[in-house]
User: What shape does this take?
Amino acid sequence: MTIERRNFLRGAAVAAGAAAFSGLAGRANADTSPNSDPAVPFHGAHQAGILTDRQNHGAFLAFDATASSKADLVDLMQTLTERARFLTAGGVPPQLGISAPPSDSGLLGPTVPPAGLAITVAVGASLFDDRFGLAGAKPSKLRPMDAFADDNLDRAICDGDLLVQVIAPDHDTVLHAIRDLTRHTRGGMQPRWRLDGFAGPPRPTGAPRNLLGFKDGIANPDVTDPALMNRLVWAGSGEPAWAKGGSYQVVRKIRMLVEFWDRVTISEQERMIGRRRDTGAPLSGSKETDTPDYADDPIGSTIPLDAHIRIANPRTKASDDSRILRRGYDYDAGLDSNGNLDMGLIFTCFQSDIDRQFVAVQKRLAGEPLVDYISPVGGGYFFALPGILNPHDWYARSLLS
Amino acid sequence: MRPALPCCLLTATALLLSACGGSSHKAAATPATVQVSVTSCGVGWKPAAAGQQHIVLADTDSRPGEVRLVSPRTGAVFADVEPIGPATTANMDVNLAAGTYAFRCLMEDEAAVTGPSVTITGAAVDPAPGVIPVDQTDLIPATKAYQAYVSHALPGLARHVATLRHDIAAHDTATAKKDWLIAHQSYERLGAAYDAFGHLDGEINGLTSTSGFHGIESGLWHGQAVNQLSDEVDTLAANVDKLAGVFAKAQVDPLTISIRAHEISENALQFELTGRDDFGSHSELATVSANLDGTKTVLAIVAPLLASRTENLPVIDAQLAKAKALVDAQHHASGWTPLSGLTTREREDIDAAINQLCEDLAPVASILEPRRTS
Assistant: This one.
């Protein structure tokens, strides 16, 4: 369900002649030291980490606010802002002599490099309950994550007051940031759930593969097209004034039953997905970048009518507005209670309107054959806050002041 | 660039650290090599302007030792490298405000030597804080006060254990459970974290023996016939008596008091709020409440040493009170809420409050670490 939606989106962008291959940003030059990865700009109308390319590593942490007043919540947001500003710019952590333990964990050495780090802060529906007087300010589509027909949600790993997304080319950069952010906010928020993800390199070329072994994503909507981003990513009319510049973010932990999947014949796998596993080509084409052809295949002789890519994107005019900006990661969480591998996808997407986009696609996918091999278990709906405009701005200022 | 924002108000650590604006620090271009030895302490230091200093220390002595950058006037320490071995080098990175500084070399078996004073001018953002070190002698009154506190409380503990012993002798399980909790809380209030009482802690608390509090807890709450616990409670009573005798005469290491406040809440976080030390009574929150009482007592004992060395005491006190109120709100007429009975929000609030308290208390252990001063 998720995999091919990604193919569809990226494929659509290619078909439209937009930005070509949107693979991993990774490191521009393999010889470059991670210590010289440039800083991702922190200030702007929109937060970093949304249009920013997918990185090799990404972590998603949901928190509940334990701040006991609106003033404490403001302090929390300002502290988060200060830490994120420092971590993404890099610098020398304060040296404290004998007055305290070291101010920094030291994971990245004595001088913290920017290391390509991007931090994105989003809010969940529960933040807008009666604790902080924000009930009237909730983004119109924000709510606890819907349970779809094929979901197996554990509500303990769903939702949350806040979501912090931390992405970087290296895992230690991500962990350094998580330790710093949580250390400085112990009293103000408590972790609720966490997902750590990664993105593999292209195998051998083109879009990277997901953990089902299929190429996963050829292109997303063109992030360099501001009009398109306004239409598909940034929150639009009908939202509170404070929300300008923000974006709805959906995160879903989707377990892949990989042992079961590996016991399925290749032709059945390919018919479920609608693409060749080796090349990534649609079954109606020869190469990864070919556009699936449904017009000449009305009864699904080539691409079955219930193939993932075909349901996810019927490629009609009406479905164009349901496109989303995907920024997903693979996860690997060890074993389940029976010794099966617990791995899958941290599906992540950004959009202007959850209902028009994510939910519409999700409903189309209900009951697709692929659901036997995947199991959505957690995640949430969030609203990524407007950007940090300048060195005096802070997360959620427009909401809280 | 200390911003107009009230940065980091949630964390006392952050306040102390002046953690905002670290990105404006620039490493100095020219590292200075400074000698560390009895005869040439601080030789070679040519300070640049105020701000970030990168100093390479070279121990040219035949002995290992410790080297500090201090204010020669007050003795306040701004940076510290301990230990440094003979014929080795080590970095000292420190962000210095304008002022007068000197190196102080404390080589093994030698009196401390202070090098030449150097005056620095200019401005620095978020410079290193200077703290006057605490030595063993400074800690003696606090150590004695802690010892007196424990000694004073031990007869009460012995009485509570005697009551428990009586309940068990009378085969009264229901009353024994109630009195077990009272006795265990009075033990947990002493702040025995991290082996303050040596091996007796393991035996009394019962994590290393079946005759301690947790062994008896397991028996009482898991349906063991109460008359089978009489040997255990006899041993517990004997060990409490032994502790009273031993502790009154013990030479308590001053380091004990310097880390006490911090370690009690660390243990509460690690062993109680995770449920690890629950043997059936589900009384973790009662234990945490008693631990917070112990922390408050220890903090009051060391407050005179801290008052001149940190501005964070009110922050710590407030956080301690907040944590205590959240935990005690789970004490009802019917008893203490078990961890499993907390709502997600309640548990998050308690976890966050104790976590924050641990952060706030961490600098206390650093400030109070007994150090050589001569």
Notes: Residues 136-368 of chain B form a domain with the A middle domain of Talin 1 fold (CATH 1.20.1420.20). The two ends of chain B are 38 Å apart (CA to CA). The first strand of chain B starts at residue 32 and ends at 36.
